[in-house]
Design goal:
The structure holds 3 protein chains of 3 kinds. Chain B is mainly alpha-helical. Chain B contains 16 helices and 8 strands. A 3-stranded antiparallel β-sheet of chain B has the order 1-2-3. A 3-stranded antiparallel β-sheet of chain B has the order 6-7-8. The chains are: A mainly alpha, B mainly alpha, C alpha+beta. Chains in contact: A-B, A-C, B-C. At the B-C interface, helix 3, helix 6, strand 5 and helix 7 of B face helix 1, helix 2, helix 3 and helix 5 of C.
Chain lengths: ~325, ~400, ~180
């Protein structure tokens, strides 16, 4: 099989699975959020409300396609599909198992971060093209937040790269399988690097506590104010996908991917991804959001210096370990 | 006039004090997820900083004071219920007190105890609603704020069930009337109330843990929306807003009515005047209400609940052409009623009934407090001002 | 940093709540028990002898703050039950669109004819369905009644309740007390 066909086939499979999991996670989030809030969540449609997702998708698809008169016609329509496309593309390099990988690039991490960073653009374009002051405010905040949090994200993702001495994601996972998971060894720095990566992923995906671009209480619906029907559905889907993929990446590069104490395989990867995904939901329904300047202060004043130090520390660690052996 | 936090006179026309500025006008419009009712604030933004804020009220004006000139005193009480629709019994209480004072009616002791009890429970319910909606403002309808909102409303429902047992309605009770109360408490009211406030007391500890002791929350509210004590007094702001700015004034202690004179009401003040201070004051008031309810719930004396014979006709209460202002401490501040008797229906209606609503004065500090803050702060400040538009517009 | 600890504390509170029973009442499959005094829609009742209790005195029409009650008296007729002549009601419409559920009409009714219900009546699909005519009001008599009837409310509010029997010159008479026939407007 040429890499192209391998990539296409596995890409399709992984893409479909991810989109399905993201859709199911909407149901799970609604049920979980409901239980946090002393209520039941969807119960009527299908057993335990699981067909609610289907009902919502159908509802969104049959809604009237409202486009504001003064909105930029091309950019307004272009933005929502682009968010989904850029987000899904990053899933191509994630190692779900030793052979379950769409594209085993040797610059895997670079590809991940570069394409993932592109997601800021469609969000910004969506807000700008809406010709709405609330959307514009949301878009500007999204840009500021997205660009700012890229840097600690990249730097904290560099820590496993330095420790494994390779950018190929399957290599990073293999090194972890042979030694220890990078979140726990070296102890301390690894966990902090994971924490920074986690926080920055939350910020990139615009999840609470970093969801000011789409803060309903302040900006009606922020960036997505003027979007209706399936376009809005795509923007929301992109957010869930981004979160899911970020947790998959974190599971791969910090928690050993498909490695496990016994019977390594795909199931470990799935388990770790879902655990991290669950944590993201749990955080969302427990915290209030940051103000935009406090968010920036957190990034520039705390996360950035810390992640720089961590990269340097991991480089020193590898150097001295290499010298010992 | 006092100048705002940003040092500009908020009543000056925008083109006069900064003609070259390229400002964006944003309507925190009447339709907005968190303007606490239909309230419009026109913001002039420089980037994200507010340079000038102009509030527009009147979207919920229903002509209640005009209705007071046609409907009689007996009939107006259920209508006035809808002013401060979050703590309805306060409105009824204010009018009833004014009329009783003008007619010289002695309200029986039992009714006074009941009124105080209900007032404190209403205060607790109102502050719970405030806390829940404030959480939504800060944390979003899809997020941590919504969790706090559901918790607060779950607790508030228990209080409303107590009222439902007594009066038959969860909201808009029409239970106070001129001369006393219309509904008496049931024998198991005391037991239910004690169980309810015990639960609420524990849950307040949980809210503090999820919310007000949270670092993120503190960052959002400390130093935000500082209201100067002198400005508060000159604008006529009372209640938790003024107390958080250092003004030590509480009608329950300083001008006691009903049986507050026999109780020891602790008044909590803070000096910071920011949103965090207001949160602390309201949380402390919640605990204080619980303490007061616990103190008097078992010592309600026996006796009648109405000091005059209940009437069968609308013209039952007639007041001659005298004037009276009487006020109570509602959860938002001083809720007053100024009654001039001798109106139509041979004195059964008021000639003029003016309602002094605390939320209107609270909303009037917006042009002074908003400038210099960002839009996110504006929402937080508006949340802590706790304006109830039914009261502001009447 | 402090943020992590506070986040963890908030998350503990929310997780603790996951394990509590939800407070939702799944209406209409479940319903909560309404208290005795719960007041919702209206009904006209018959008295113990089976005669229509309403005497068309127009007290409810006069007291209503929202002016939603319209009473049409039918004049004096012989009662089929007692044989005596008494006032009867021809039509009474109550517009539930504008009712504020203040209970004043129930309180002033001298014969406990107009009462409120404890049981929720079925919702209707048209605005006309909210105009309760006399037939619907008498049909509502079959639903559960609220505790608060005119007599009971007046008894509860009696200023002499719970007091020892007063001396003859100790009446608590307010200014302007009026009997029902005075017809103040």
């Amino acid at each position: 099989m040429t890499p192209m066909i391998h990539g296409l086939v596995w890409g399709l499979i992984i893409g479909t699975v991810l989109v399905t999991v993201a859709a199911l996670s909407i149901w799970f989030e609604r049920k979980f959020a409901a239980r946090i809030q002393s209520r039941y969540g969807p119960t009527l449609v299908g057993p335990a409300g699981i067909l609610q997702i289907v009902a919502d998708a159908l509802k969104m698809m049959q809604k009237e396609d409202i486009i504001p008169e003064k909105a930029d016609p091309i950019l307004f329509r272009l933005a929502p599909p682009c968010t989904v496309i850029f987000t899904l593309t990053t899933a191509a390099v994630i190692p779900f198992d030793e052979n379950v990988l769409a594209a085993d690039l040797d610059i895997g991490v670079l590809f991940l971060l570069a394409v993932g960073g592109l997601v800021v653009f469609p969000v910004w374009i969506a807000g700008w093209a809406s010709n709405n002051k609330y959307a514009l405010l949301g878009a500007m905040r999204a840009v500021a937040q997205g660009i700012a949090y890229e840097i600690p994200l990249v730097l904290s993702a560099m820590v496993p790269v330095v420790l494994a001495q390779s950018m190929r994601l399957s290599d990073i996972v293999s090194v972890q399988a042979q030694t220890h998971w990078f979140a726990f060894w070296p102890l301390g720095p690894g966990l902090i690097a994971f924490a920074i990566f986690f926080i920055c992923s939350l910020a990139e995906a615009n999840r609470i506590p970093f969801d000011i671009p789409e803060a309903e209480s302040e900006l009606v619906a922020g960036v997505t104010t003027e979007y209706a029907g399936m376009r809005f559905g795509l923007l929301q889907m992109a957010e869930y996908l981004h979160t899911l993929i970020a947790s998959a990446v974190a599971a791969a590069i910090f928690f050993g991917g498909w490695d496990g104490p016994f019977a390594p395989g795909l199931h470990w990867m799935v388990l770790k991804t879902l655990v991290l995904f669950f944590m993201i939901f749990w955080i969302r329904w427990s915290l209030v959001r940051f103000r935009s300047d406090q968010l920036m202060a957190l990034c520039w004043k705390y996360l950035l210096p810390l992640s720089l130090l961590l990269v340097m520390a991991s480089a020193l660690f590898v150097h001295y370990r290499a010298m010992e052996t | 006039m006092q100048s705002s936090a940003a040092g500009v006179d908020p009543h000056l026309d925008i083109d006069t004090y900064d003609p070259g500025a390229d400002l964006m006008v944003l309507n925190l419009g009447p339709q907005h997820p968190s303007t606490h009712g239909v309230f419009r604030v026109k913001l002039y933004l420089d980037g994200e900083i507010i340079v000038k804020a102009v509030p527009y009220a009147g979207y919920l004006h229903r002509g209640v004071e005009k209705l007071c000139e046609e409907l009689t005193f007996v009939q107006i009480i259920p209508v006035v219920d809808k002013n401060d629709y979050v703590s309805p019994m306060m409105n009824e209480q204010a009018i009833a007190m004014a009329c009783e004072a003008m007619l010289g009616i002695e309200v029986p002791r039992r009714a006074l105890y009941l009124r105080t009890l209900f007032a404190e429970l209403q205060r607790l319910a109102s502050h719970l609603l405030w806390l829940g909606t404030f959480g939504m403002d800060l944390g979003g309808a899809l997020g941590g704020g919504a969790s706090l909102f559901m918790y607060c409303f779950r607790e508030r429902e228990t209080i409303l069930s107590l009222f439902e047992e007594v009066t038959g309605a969860r909201f808009h009770y029409n239970t106070h009337t001129v001369g006393g109360n219309r509904h008496d408490i049931t024998p198991k009211f005391s037991h239910d109330t004690k169980a309810t406030i015990r639960v609420i007391e524990e849950r307040i500890g949980e809210y503090v843990q999820i919310f007000s002791s949270n670092r993120i929350y503190r960052d959002r509210t400390q130093g935000v929306g500082v209201l100067d004590g002198d400005l508060a007094i000159s604008l006529g702001i009372t209640g938790p807003l003024a107390r958080a700015s250092g003004v030590d004034h509480d009608l329950r202690r300083d001008a006691p009515y009903h049986i507050y004179g026999e109780l020891d009401v602790n008044v909590f003040t803070e000096s910071a005047g920011d949103c965090f201070a207001r949160t602390l004051v309201r949380l402390n008031e919640m605990r204080e209400s619980i303490r007061i309810v616990r103190e008097i719930i078992d010592s309600v004396p026996e006796g009648p609940i109405l000091g005059i014979k209940p009437g069968k006709s609308p013209g039952h209460i007639k007041i001659d052409a005298s004037q009276r202002y009487s006020c109570i401490e509602s959860p938002r501040g001083e809720l007053g009623t100024y009654v001039i008797g001798g109106g139509s229906n041979r004195g059964a209606s008021a000639y003029r009934l003016k309602i002094r609503s605390p939320s209107l004065h609270a909303a009037s500090c917006i042009p002074y407090v908003f400038p210099g803050h960002t839009v996110s702060d504006a929402i937080a400040i508006l949340g802590t001002l706790d304006p109830i538009m039914g009261e502001v517009d009447r | 940093m402090g943020y992590f600890i506070d986040t963890a504390r908030a998350m503990i509170v929310t997780m603790r709540n996951v394990f509590r029973r939800p407070t939702t009442v799944q209406y209409p499959t479940e319903d909560r028990v309404r208290p005795e005094r719960y007041r919702t829609s209206f009904a006209l009742v018959h008295d113990e002898e089976g005669d229509e209790a309403c005497i068309a005195c127009l007290a409810c029409e006069r007291i209503c703050p929202s002016r939603i009650i319209t009473v049409k008296p039918a004049g004096k007729r012989e009662s089929p039950v007692t044989g005596k002549k008494r006032n009867y009601l021809e039509d009474l419409t109550l517009d539930m669109n504008a009712c504020i559920f203040c209970e004043l009409c129930v309180q002033v009714c001298p014969t406990d004819a107009l009462i409120m219900l404890r049981e929720l009546s079925k919702p209707t699909l048209s605005r006309e369905g909210l105009f309760l005519s006399m037939e619907r009001l008498y049909a509502n008599e079959a639903l559960a009644h609220s505790w608060g009837t005119g007599t009971r409310l007046m008894e509860m509010q009696d200023p002499k309740r719970g007091l020892p029997a007063p001396e003859p010159n100790q009446e608590v008479t307010p200014p302007g007390v009026d009997p029902i026939a005075e017809g103040a407007s």
